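Why this split exists: single-chain examples teach little about how molecules sit against one another. For that reason, every record in the complexes split bundles all components of an assembly together and asks for one structure covering all of them. Below is a record exactly as it appears in the raw files.
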Amino acid sequence: MTATAEPTPAETPVDERELLVDARGVKVHFPIKRGVILDKVIGHVYAVDGVDLQIRKGETYGLVGESGCGKSTLGKAILNLEPPTEGSVLVDGTDVASLKGAALRRRRKDFQMVFQDPMSSLDPRQSVESLLVEGMKAHGLATDAKATAKRLRELLAAVGLPAAALKKYPHEFSGGQRQRIGIARALAVEPKLIVADEPVSALDVSVQAQVINLLEELQDEFDLTYLVVAHDLAVVRHISDRIGVMYLGGLVEEASADDLYAQPLHPYTRALLSAVPLPDPAAEDAREQILLVGDLPSPSRPPSGCRFHTRCPWRQETRCDDERPQLRVVEVDGVPASHRVACHFAEEIARGEIQRHEVTATATVQDWRGEDEGDAIGPASVAEAEADARRTSSASSQVTPPGP
Amino acid sequence: MTATATTPSTNRHGDEPLLSVRDLRVTFTRQGEEPFTAVDGVSFDVRPGQTVGLVGESGCGKSVTSLAIMGLLPRRGNRVEGTATFDGTDLLRLGSSEMRDRRGRDIAMIFQDPLSSLNPVVPVGLQVTEVLERHRKMSRKAATPLARDLLKRVGIPDPDRRLKDYPHQMSGGMRQRALIAMALACAPRLLIADEPTTALDVTIQAQILSLLKELVQETGTALVMITHDLGVVAGLCDEVNVLYGGRIVERGGRHELFGQPRHPYTNGLLASIPRLDAERAPLTPIPGSVSDNLPWTSACAFAPRCSQPVDVCTQRTPQLEESGSRALRCFNPVGGPR
Ligand SMILES: Nc1ncnc2c1ncn2[C@@H]1O[C@H](COP(=O)(O)OP(=O)(O)OP(=O)(O)O)[C@@H](O)[C@H]1O
Ligand SMILES: Nc1ncnc2c1ncn2[C@@H]1O[C@H](COP(=O)(O)OP(=O)(O)O)[C@@H](O)[C@H]1O
Ligand code: SF4
Ligand code: SF4
Ligand SMILES: [Mg+2]
Ligand SMILES: [Mg+2]
């Protein structure tokens, strides 16, 4: 996770023994239920839909993609906090899903999660001391009072909080300090893997950098492996050794952080990178943007074929609409085998043989309804709409806007 | 810094400000609590066709500034001082019905969370039509096709169908477009946008920003852009005001400000963000947090976090000093005194 040059993944082929996480064909599908007692399954959200992901010991793997593309769900599936509908996840050689009871508890301490909003993930009624000791106790790490006290001091020092913080409560801290407490809590049980879900996105810019630097220092000090989930591409690039780009439940591109930003090959990655505003007016004026039109399709109705085809400016008549591209090594000069892309036409696009074209925008309707009732007649006036809503709400005692 | 791009549209539109905010001060007075000054003597001008940015981290007073100008602060529990002159009228002295009228006609605002400014039980098309009927005195028959055109104009696909959608049926990006359509429906001369893209994905943010840019260019609407994102500011704003602890600490054209930040806070912000457009380099955070601030009344509020404070910083209040198009509030600026 350092910014210095390391051997590229291409030079260090994935060695099975070096893998901490080995996920294969992971799917997580959430049923969409309707009906009075929610017993009728009317569809599924394909939150994660067939992902292979390997993370090596000691590296930082970054997952990026737009809201709802399945980043958090994949992170949770790897920790078995959200059991996969299909596929297998080996963490340090063990299939977590197969563990039960004491064995599961023992392994659980090896994998910790750090969340976006430190306030909602910390119990406001517990002092920092009790928050930290809780996890240690659960894993049998707080037996000797003297050793525990020493450990607590070390933990606070490691995350840059004063010893006086132990007696305080979460609301007495700033956002950045609360995130430090969340990190200290994860560290308390001496984990091997930390899944950090948007660890800095709730923080102010000035404080973000403190927490990013802290995560980097702790990794070196404690030999940690990170899976960092974030939507901020600059943060992910800074922090990661390797990066996976997700779109609608699948990985569309994977490469070392430097390769990915130097030469993005998937049309979605290109669009994503070109959309990030740069804090440099000259660069902003010169920037060539690939503006995507329309919305991200709903993950409950993913497009056929390549999931990006509804928004892809390079979409072709053949294959794109009906054949789902797999992550593959591409044959482009200077692109290493570790850089994989799920696009049928990655080579042609990279060589400039296929040109960008206009795309017609589509909007995504947010709820579950048929496609053909667009002509339903709406209320005639604001007053009528509001009266309708009042009637509906007094009938069901719940404000549900009158949908189709 | 040699600016290559065209300079602020100021030149195009003459020098008369459309909105002139002077010494704006907002103090929250809660019973049983110390009065708290959220905005502490803020002054800036906005000219027709110009985009002015207010940038700073959470709690620095960006939203309260805009809400005070729009007359949208809670009626009780606060004191608003200073002036906000729009076209010769001080908005802060207007009665609530006069202000409501202004808001429909001359000034519009869009917020971070479009859902909170849309009526959840009324189809979006009808909400746009309503604005046209009320503020442009149009008939329903004339307003409906115009509403449709506005939705199309802001990039809502299939506007005929979308007219009948309720806000909850639209994605965040589409809702923000609908809100922009409503703002446009009154053809405002001034648009205030408070973090309009913060809740959106970066690809959708790019669409909305390019839409706002186009609107400013085509209609000459003045835009006040409130954001914490320095990237958004760099691409969009002619002039940038950096706020810290309720006060403007630095102001400049975007090329000057980013090319040569003079305030240690501005400089620190730029050093603490990871860059996509450069080699990976270690980040230099600003230490501490806003909870370490000193009171402006007797010091520089930023002093406890500053990388280069001098003795006087904790003894006196630095004043905002203007020189040409720039302004700076600092005893020991980056790059030394000029
Ligand atoms: N428990 C659940 N039940 C039903 N649907 C869910 C559940 N959890 C997530 N989803 C859906 O699965 C999809 C992926 O969600 P996920 O939280 O993984 O996205 P994400 O990439 O982390 O997005 P964000 O950037 O907004 O955090 C979304 O459509 C979400 O609404
Ligand atoms: N209605 C209110 N009552 C009391 N304090 C408020 C109120 N609204 C905002 N504040 C305080 O004013 C300060 C500035 O807030 P705001 O303008 O919303 O910040 P931002 O720059 O993030 O938009 C903050 O400390 C905030 O807590
Ligand atoms: S497979 Fe086709 S639609 Fe998908 S990204 Fe490649 S070119 Fe675009
Ligand atoms: S006035 Fe002093 S403390 Fe404040 S920013 Fe300038 S140098 Fe730093
Ligand atoms: Mg998430
Ligand atoms: Mg705000």
